[in-house]
Design brief:
By secondary structure, the chain is an alpha+beta fold. A hairpin with a 7-residue loop joins strand 7 and strand 8. The protein is globular, with a radius of gyration of 23 Å.
């Protein structure tokens, strides 16, 4: 019996110590909201961020205007992403959600990319989109769908995904992300446009390309 009590006490102490070590993190907000501020002078430190005193919060801390305006799609890929995250709406801080508007030129695309910190749910407002994502190694299974206005599609967190406008007219989609700042890594830009550049020998072997092709791709990204 004494041995059982000793084991129980040891487990309790280990658990208590673990809780003490983890006390700096909480998976959900500890208050109604935490409006982010850049100057900590007038804020309080909660959940790892400096927050405005809740009594000083105003409507504009939770407001953004402009998603009705089309983005400029005159670029190499023919798309534009208008982001509404914690940088645009400071009241999103700690709430784990953000929004984007994506405009596509005719036959434009949102090229293969990932969001390292968020799952994306996309709804088509205008046009016809070919969308898809690729599962992780070793399967690398491609899952695709053609979407029409009103259709919804989900891109799981961290997986490479894309959207392509199949039509000869502009397309528009809106997407929610499960993070106040989901981040984005555009594959081609990251691989061929890194700063400083990745050694071409690495990319030549990785992609099984001629080295001249690799250096050309690096020059345009």
């Amino acid at each position: 019996m004494k041995g059982i009590h000793s084991i129980f006490l040891a487990c309790f102490l280990v658990s208590a110590f673990a809780c003490f070590l983890a006390s700096a993190f909480d998976p959900s907000p500890l208050q109604d909201f935490c409006v982010a501020i850049n100057d900590p002078k007038d804020g309080v430190f909660v959940n790892g961020k400096f927050c405005k005193d809740p009594k000083l919060a105003v409507a504009d801390d939770f407001f953004y205007s402009g998603l009705n305006k089309p983005g400029n799609t005159y670029n190499r890929v023919g798309s534009n992403v208008t982001t509404v995250n914690v940088d645009q709406i400071p009241g999103l801080n700690t709430l784990g959600i953000s929004l984007v508007r994506i405009d596509y030129a005719p036959y434009g695309e949102n090229p293969p990319h990932t969001h390292p910190r968020g799952t994306e749910i996309l709804v088509v407002a205008q046009g016809t989109l070919y969308v898809g994502f690729v599962t992780s190694n070793p399967e690398n299974h491609l899952i695709t769908k053609i979407l029409y206005p009103g259709d919804v599609f989900v891109f799981p967190i961290g997986l490479i995904h894309f959207q392509y406008n199949l039509g000869n007219t502009p397309a528009v989609a809106f997407a929610g992300l499960s993070s106040q700042n989901a981040g984005v890594i555009t594959i081609a830009n990251a691989v061929f446009g890194s700063n400083p550049p990745i050694n071409p020998d690495v990319l030549t072997k990785a992609f099984q390309l001629d080295k001249n092709v690799v250096t050309h791709l690096q020059s345009i990204f």
